[in-house]
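for the writeup, i need someone to sanity check this before i put it in the appendix. the sequnce is what the collaborator sent (i think, or maybe the updated version? ugh). structure was predicted straight from it, no edits. if anything looks off just tell me and ill rerun, i have time this weekend
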Amino acid sequence: MMNPLIPLFVAVPLAGAFLTIILGRFITAIPRYMALAVLLFLAFISFWSLVTGGDGSSVYTLGGWEPVEGVPIGLYLIHDGFSALLLCLISLVGLLSVTYSVSYMARYTSENYFYSLFCLMIAGMNGVVLSGDIFNIYVFLEISAISSYALVAFGVEKNELEATLKYQVLGVVASFMILFAIGFIYWSAKTLNIADIRTVFSADYDNSHYLLIQILLLTGFGLKAAIIPFHAWLPDAHSSAPSPISAMLSGVLIKAVGIYVIIRLFFNMFEVTEGMSIVITTLGALSMAVGVFLAIGQWDIKRLLAYHSISQMGYVVMSVGIGMILMARGIRSEVAALAITGGIFHMLNHAAFKGLLFLNAGAIEYSVGTRDLREMGGLAKGMPVTSATSLAASLSISGIPPFNGFFSKLIIIVAAVMGRFYFLALLAVIVSIITLASFMKFQRYAFYNVEPGKIRNDIKEVPVPMLLSMITLAVVCLLLSLLALPGLRETVLSPATDILMDQLKYSSQITGM
């Protein structure tokens, strides 16, 4: 089924980036309203496509090139149950980050460059999520990555420039490995279309060559996703960037250009093998455990949140890995489906609560002028909305009901127990308890820990656009809990799980075979 809306996900933000730079030179206020209009439009069409798409997938062939004898010769953009969820995430968190930026970025110069780079980053992420061609994934990945390098350094302070240098160096290493893997794929398969690569590889492949490609791709995209041990760039980059960009990097970028691509390729391009599934599960479990232990000792709010991003992405990777192991063994397909659903659900939840926490951190820094928890205290009185929304996000990430994080973690733990991965289930519970301890520290030192006579009366709440974004994400943290209900889960999450587990479904819609 051809969907004419699909190319707009890339074309509209690209046009927005171009027009923002030109018109921003003449009218100062145009960039922020242009970016808001672009993200509002993308949010509308992404949720419209999710609601009207149902279980089906839409394929858009650029230039109208149809497959010839089942061989795809054109460039494909594919909108299915999995990509639809990511598009909604990108547009929602993007819209709220831009709304937040209207007040937050007023302190910075060159707003037109900020909003132009923001639109370019959105275009790149949308392109990665929609591409059915592995080289196009690489091209769009570079668009989003280069934009994010500039945005991390936007304040041009020493620590920001140092952070973006580290980010760029490791980003270039990741890009080189991905490009190297794409070269190997084209050398052996003579095609770059994901569905066609699967057809060629499943018919005849050299095992050692196949394994080398998988390792290169896992390392490259693992660096982009900042899973352990490829995480070195993330704490500096996420803590140094302007807060709306931190929310984007943690909330959606590491998912769209890292986790999403790993899941898509290892389910829809490669055969699911037990050995690689165990590697992926181990990396997820390591990220989950190491990330939380690195986080708990931090006093800089944004570094604390950055390390928790590594830990929470570990939940996603571990859960999907459990599903892969069960699929590779050909047993308990219903448990495999539950594990994969839990991982996808947690990925959605993480975008909401971690995006909100970074916006909270930005609000505190905006009003107080510091990110050090030891220099805060008693902020609940002067910043009641920031305090309330950060409490909601802290409870959510810690897995406390009725917030969304509880339900996705529960599904992951139940799936691990049902799949007889008892150690991983216990590890997930322990990590969640340590996460709760870490966020109790955050709440205590930021909002409550002060002697009565030392409460600062000069602290005021942040401007309305920033409050609006935080309140909206706090509400989203509650509403996403509803996806745990059977009817909604089957409508929203099951199409994503189905396209990953039914490995011929993705290929057949492109090749027509």
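Residues 414 and 496 are 20 Å apart (CA to CA). The radius of gyration is 22 Å.
thx in advance!!
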